[in-house]
Every structure is written in structure tokens, then in C-alpha cells.
Design a protein that fits this description.
By secondary structure, the protein is an alpha+beta fold. It contains eleven helices and six strands.
Length: 299
């Protein structure tokens, strides 16, 4: 009789431990993969492994769960690289609504902005995993080394390489208020196709990326440089904006714009900005990435 109760209690305890760690597990997997759909799959797989594990020897459930999640996410990221190489047009991370939970289980809001996830994609998945564990979750290097099955000196090197990569690819960011102001001014200039106003807002080396996943009408190559991007935005303004409704939302910890037409979301517009102006314009138009985001907003 007692054995049954003990088993039920053990499953209860295991479930509680998993639910307590869940935001962190999702946060790690999402940052490594740049996809909320893939991150959910990883969290589900972690739960199955935890449920079926011999938990009698596990002293720290969260450490066990984190290790499983991080390793699964890195493995999936390695196979996702191959899939992304055949992706039509620019690949952007799948946005998430961070309004209700700005850190997605993290100690710090690092490695969450769309532009950072986009740049992290250029690193190998192990470097990315090390960076996420250190910068967003503040793990000590010896623990990162255990999770990644490497030495502590190598764990430090992995994080250092990732930091250097981001530092060379990305200038110092503007604060949230200035970010919003730039996006407001950008929207007004883009809607009217105001070429001089657009040029004034954009950094000299600005890049506009459209992730349409191969859909018709979405630019399949990045548009690069102040004048090119300004002309490109001005050219499609008369077709794109008059029938569009714009809603302010939050995506990946930053103010963003959700653009709808005829009641359906057609684009999520995010920018990345420094003292030089707007450096990156990111249009997420792929329905497979937009739909989960929009669904999470209405939820």
C-alpha cells in the first residue's frame, strides 16, 4: 500500500521540480535555437527523459534538467544549421511575446533581442550554448563546462569568442525610450515614403532583412546601405501601408510593430538601433513564425 503512495509522491515531486524549472528550460532552448516551436519540443523531450530517469541519485533536479535541455538544444541546433542553409531568403529568429515575462526564465535579459539571436546564429551551437548559459543565466564556468562536457578553460574561451563576435557585429544599443522614438519616427517616414526623413534615421551600413520563408513578394536578399534601404522602403510604401493596420507590441524585450491587413497579421517589424541610427530592420513575414507570435498575444 505504502509503495504506491511513495511512487505517487515521487512523481508529484518530480513534476513540481520540472514545472519550477520550466521557464528556465524554455529560455535556454529558445535562445540557443531562435525558435519557440523547437524550444517547446526540447522542453517536452526533457520532461520525458526526466519522467523516465532514475531520479533517486539526482541531488539537484534543476541542474539535471538544465543539462539535458542545453545538450538537446545544441544537438538540434547542429542539425538545424543544415536546414537553414536551404532556407529561401534571409532567416530571422522566431519572435516571442515577452510582455508577460521579459526574461523568459533568465537571471538577466541578455541574448533575447531578435538582432542578438540573429547574430548568435552565425556562431557554432556550442559557442552559442556557452554564451547563453553565461550571459543570460549567469552560470559559473565550471558548471557550463560540466553541461557542455568540456574543460573550464575551454568554456571561458567559448564565451569569450561569442562576446567578441557580438562586439564586432553590433554597436552599443540605444535605451528603450530612444528605441521606441526611433521606431515611431521610422514608421511615420516609412508610411509616407519620405526619403530624406528615412535617410536621416538610418545608419550608413543599415541592412533590411525580410524573412518570408519563400513567400511571394518578400525580398529574398538583404537590402544594404542607407540610400538603397531608404529607396526600397519608399518604393513599396504606396502599396504596403494604405491598407495596413499597425499595432504596438513587444517582441523579444523591445517595442515592435505588428502590421495587419484585412484582419490578418502580415508582418512583425523590429529594429536594432545605435547612436549611428537604425542599423538593422527586420521584417518577420513568414506565416509559420508570425502565427505562433500572434496566437501568444491573444492568449
Amino acid at each position: 500500500m505504502h509503495a504506491g503512495n511513495d511512487d505517487a509522491d515521487a512523481v508529484d515531486e518530480a513534476t513540481k521540480a520540472f514545472l519550477a524549472a520550466r521557464p528556465r528550460l524554455f529560455g535556454i532552448a529558445y535562445r540557443v535555437l531562435g525558435s519557440s516551436v523547437e524550444a517547446e519540443d526540447i522542453v517536452q523531450e526533457t520532461w520525458l527523459r526526466w519522467h523516465n530517469a532514475d531520479r533517486t541519485n539526482v541531488l539537484e533536479p534543476t541542474a539535471f534538467l538544465t543539462t539535458v535541455t542545453a545538450r538537446l538544444a545544441i544537438n538540434l541546433a547542429q542539425s538545424a544549421r543544415v536546414r537553414r542553409e536551404s532556407y529561401i531568403g534571409p532567416w530571422l529568429p522566431e519572435p516571442i511575446d515577452t510582455g508577460p515575462d521579459p526574461h523568459v526564465g533568465a537571471e538577466r535579459a541578455e541574448a533575447l533581442e531578435l538582432a542578438v539571436l540573429f547574430l548568435l546564429e552565425k556562431l557554432n551551437p556550442v559557442e552559442r550554448g556557452a554564451y547563453v548559459l553565461r550571459e543570460a543565466f549567469d552560470y559559473p564556468y565550471h558548471q557550463i563546462a560540466d553541461i557542455l562536457e568540456t574543460g573550464e578553460a575551454n568554456a571561458r574561451q567559448l564565451v569569450s569568442r561569442a562576446r567578441k563576435h557580438l562586439a564586432t557585429e553590433r554597436r552599443k544599443r540605444v535605451g528603450p525610450a530612444e528605441h521606441r522614438r526611433l521606431l515611431e519616427v521610422f514608421l511615420a517616414a516609412a508610411q509616407t515614403g519620405d526619403l530624406p526623413a528615412l535617410e536621416e534615421l538610418l545608419a550608413a551600413d543599415v541592412v533590411s532583412y525580410t524573412d518570408g520563408g519563400g513567400m511571394r513578394g518578400a525580398s529574398k536578399i538583404p537590402v544594404i546601405g542607407r540610400l538603397r534601404v531608404a529607396k526600397y522602403l519608399a518604393a513599396f510604401a504606396p502599396r504596403f501601408w494604405p491598407s495596413a493596420d499597425v499595432q504596438w507590441v513587444e517582441a523579444n524585450g523591445r517595442p515592435s510593430l505588428l502590421v495587419s491587413a484585412g484582419g490578418n497579421a502580415v508582418a512583425l517589424l523590429c529594429i536594432d538601433a545605435s547612436a549611428e541610427g537604425i542599423d538593422r530592420i527586420m521584417w518577420v513575414m513568414s506565416p509559420s513564425k508570425l502565427s505562433p507570435y500572434v496566437a501568444s498575444l491573444s492568449a
